[in-house]
Structures are given as structure tokens and as C-alpha cells.
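ingest -> validate -> predict -> emit
validate: passed (alphabet ok, no gaps, 242 aa)
predict: started
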Amino acid sequence: MKKYLAEMVGTLVLVLMGCGSAIFNFGVGTTAQVLTVAFGFGLSIVAMTYAIGGISGCHINPAITLGALLSGRIKGKDAGMYMLFQVIGAILGSLILYIIVANIDASSASYIAAKGDFATKTGANGAQPGVSVVGALIAEIVFTFVFVLVVLGTTDGKKGAGAFAGLAIGLSLVLVHIVCIPLTGTSVNPARSIGPAIFEAVYGNGGALSQLWIFIVGPFVGAALSALVWKTIGADKKKDKL
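emit:
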């Protein structure tokens, strides 16, 4: 149970800090805002990797858990429980943000009351203006593939980065966010998208919920592809453990 609770806490922190960086820095409309949010998510990964990595492996992302499952690094039962507790953690993180936002005077922070902007309300994902549903789906597949491949490679028992794996994974998430934020707000993590989408429905018209499938299907497909590629080019016959 400890490893499941660790996944819950880690995902809570990821959503709280990552989505919080978007909410309280007025969205992702400028280069500075994009970098702020990118580092908000990336540094959260670094912090949690070294905090709970020794307990659960610090997946804090159903896509990573799927990649680990398909790579033979985790059993099916554990994978299912990891995903469940990751989603619970994401919802709890979003709930904390919702409570904070609900208790800020809208007259002094009018952006919180603005409608139609997912990022400034809950950090929810959505295809950005001019990006089609297909384009958003492809982006999530491709960038999740890159991210999970980095995770599988850096955590490999023989070929990995050892103690530096957390830093490499966090920085790769920063990189992914820098490129993908203008396209989808960057998910590459179904749990990270589920929590904020639920609370976006409270503020808006449920637009994030209507697009949520993109941020579940895309990351899972990308993770499956990364596991296939890693098993082809990097894995030994002996199974590594994430």
C-alpha cells in the first residue's frame, strides 16, 4: 500500500505545482509563461523522483506505468493500482487548487473569473486555437513517446543514468512542455489531465471534459510505442525494474 500512496502523493504534487504554475502565472500566453509552466512540471518530477523514487519508482503518470507494464517491469495488478492512485492524486491536487482559486477575490485577480481559458482556471488541457483534434492527438502521441522513452532508457538497470535519472527525466519533461504547450497545453499524462478537466467543468462549459479522450488515448498510444521501441533497441533479455 505504501507504494500506491506514494504514487498518489507524487501525482498530487505534480498537479498542484505544475497546474498551479499556469493558474497563478496567468496562463501560457507568453514565452516567459511557457517556460515557467514547463519548469513547474519538470522540477516537480525531479523533486518527487528523489522523494518517492525509492518507494514506488515515481511513475506518477499512467502512461509511464503502461510503458513499464509493457516492458515487463511491473505486474498487471500493481500497474492497475498505480493508475488508480495516480488519478486520485491528480483529483486531490486539482481540488486544492480549486479551493485556493475559490478563495481569491476575483476583483483583484480577474483572470480567475475569465471564461474560455482552461489554463488560467484549472490548468486543464485542450487543443489550442488553430490546432485540430487530429493535430492534438498526434502531438500527445509523439511527445509522450519521447518522454516515456527517456524514462525507460534512463531507468534501465544497466544502461540507465543511475542517480541522475530523475534529473534527466525532469528536464526531458521541461523540453516536451516547451514544444507542446502551444499545441495542447501538454499532457503526456492522463491523470494530470483528468483532475483539472473535472474542475474546469465547474468554471466553464466542460470543454476540457469533451476533449479529455485525446489526453487519455494519445499518451497511452505513445507509451505503448515507446515500450515497443525500447524492447527492440535497448532492453536485455533479463527484465529491468522501474
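The chain has a mean pLDDT of 89.
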